[in-house]
Design goal:
With 72 residues, this protein is α+β, with helices and mostly antiparallel strands. The protein is built from two helices and four strands; from the N terminus they run βαββαβ.
Length: 72
């Protein structure tokens, strides 16, 4: 059975225009593998990381002025 604990999923209110800002913020944090599903009503943010935790990402996104919560 595969372990997918390194894939972090979040529900957000992000828009296409926010991608540049996030690219810069994520680069500073060493996050290189991420994407936002703008076609999904939950604007799902997916981050691949073995080191970062959900709470840290939520604080990071909210600190930029966006809504963010763990997607279950």
């Amino acid at each position: 059975m595969e372990n997918f604990d390194h894939i972090l999923l979040f529900k957000t209110n992000l828009e296409a225009a926010n991608k540049e800002l996030l690219r810069d913020v994520f680069a500073k944090e060493g996050i290189t593998e991420w994407n936002i599903d703008l076609d999904d009503e939950d604007r799902v943010l997916r981050i691949i990381s073995t080191a970062l935790k959900h709470n840290y990402i939520i604080q990071l996104i909210r600190g930029c002025g966006f809504e963010c919560c763990t997607l279950t």
